[in-house]
Amino acid sequence: MANRLRDSRSPYLLQHAEDPVDWYPFGEEAFTTALQEDKPIFLSVGYSACHWCHVMHRESFQDPEVAGILNRHFIPVKVDREERPDVDAAYMRALISLTGQGGWPMSLFLTPEGKPFFGGTYFPREDRASLPSFKRVLLAVAQAWREEREAILREAERLSQALWRSLTPPPGPVPQDVEEKALQFLARSFDPEWGGFLPAPKFPQGNLLLYLLALAWRGKEEARGMLYKTLRAMALGGVYDQVGGGFHRYAVDRFWYLPHFEKMLYDNALLARVYLGAYRVFADPLFLRVARETLDWLLSMQSPGQGGFYTALDAESEGEEGRYYTWTPDELQAALREDYPLAHRYFALGKAPLLEGGESPRYVLTAWGEEEVKRELGEGFAVWREGLRARLLASRRRRMPPNLDDKVLADWSALAVRALAEAGRLLRDGRYLMAARRGSHFLVETMGKDGLVRHVWRAGALGEEAFLQDQSFTALALLELYTATGEWPYLEKARSLAEAAWEVFQGEGLEGPSTRPALKSLPLPAKEVEETTLPSGKSALAEAFWRLQAAFGGDYRRRAQLLLEEGALWLERHPHALPGLLLVHRLLKEGTELALPTPSPILESVRELYLPLTQLVVGPADALPGLRGREPGKAYLCREGACRLPVEEVRSLVEEVQAVYGG
């Protein structure tokens, strides 16, 4: 029975390979068996770094009594949401429609045809507060399936039809006031004291912060205020790993103090770009430090042999969430010795509550006392802090580390490649640029097959699935490498991936189909209509087309406009939830191209400029449509082919940018 998962590629599915539950992977076998045995399907969706997934695993899926109930009355199906984002997106929308909220573990009950009729997230082993026990839920659903079958089937069909209608709206014009409405909503939910958006829990929402960053660079004061407050509060809070760098997945409170401790590649790839750009906008040295430490954490997640980027670090170690990252007072004193009194003030341990529940109370480290200690130490602060981190890191490395999810996801790896390429360009740091080159090579050469980048690779095995995000995120990463290096193979490969994505995925929704679907077709639309944390495949492809237009001309701008209009209804209803499409809207409205024919004495200096609404086109004169008729050694700032007077100095170019955008 457990052999069905023993051959899985997914670390998450392998965690369940020894369960007494008779798990099936998501696919035709499970649905055929459900039809033959006339049983409903229990669908469990999670991922390897998910804390509450582990809790439900220990409490219920490893329990023989619970497993017996599941095996008798249901066909249990286990899904890794990171390997199958299409399945996750389809059923998460159904769960939200059923319960008003979502999350992982996702626990859904389906008809044998795959249509959901009841669900929730985490269910405890025994009754707890307002949550019924998982055993109680299983028995109640099994009884309802026997006694109320017709009503269940009607409800499942009604929900399925409603989801198809609501998630496949017709395209249309984008409202002109869409950005103003988004900012108004964000302002209403903004936490003016601690940053971020209420209510808690608070997620970093990297894609939303990137959009606010573009507006802040543009001079929008409301966006500047929300962004600056949020970035400082996150950087000084417990949601940021003050010792090892990088961000945990989210904070359970409004203070950014207590995180869920898993560390995700996608969060940190996006946040590295946010903090690096914010340093250029606000000139706050804290932002540069956090950007570099987060970029260095990305480097630690890169496979030393292959070049791909691993997916995540678990929240747990030694059977306890956060054990690796938290400290008892005795552990801190032993590691820091004479520096402990000053570190006590730096970490604001007198303000931070001790966490109960483990073997002994523990602290989450913040940097809430940084300004006070910085004033006291003056120029010696940076050296003191680095020494502090080094001793704590040395002590922490002697602990059992969290589990590493060592699969490589193309879309998330592409986010890391883009962040490192941008950092290598803006900071002139060869380490970051080399890592980006290696990562892009792995994506294109190892994960590429038949013109598409495949979604997942692990331990030498490449999956067959390919999604729109894999193509569009990789195209944007390659475009950033072209911007950083001027090397044409990156530009040409970005173009071919965007073209392939347009051909294969057009009309298939925000995520697009898998090239080898587990079912002939999913019974629900696999569309993601929220992109505050991650950009959608559609908005990323639209951005890629806008950037390709600068180099190649043609109809790429029209394609970007069409993709934007496909999301028009969602933008009208929930503009704040679609920052990727909002960014495309702004690029189409006021984005610029910067043509720089080579050779050019100012090329390297131009590359260091932070211009989030501009695409640099560099190469020999007349080699590309975007360079034709341009004189080498001069820079041309253009919008839709209409150019300002060429300039020969970086200072003059900055003045031209200011004239176009203000500020």
UniProtKB/TrEMBL annotation:
- Spermatogenesis-associated protein 20-like TRX domain residues are 3-163
By its UniProt entry, which Gene3D superfamilies does this protein fall under? 1.50.10.10, Glutaredoxin (3.40.30.10)
Give the matching InterPro entries: 6-hairpin_glycosidase_sf, 6hp_glycosidase-like_sf, Ssp411, Ssp411-like_TRX, Thioredoxin-like_sf
This chain belongs to the protein called: DUF255 domain-containing protein
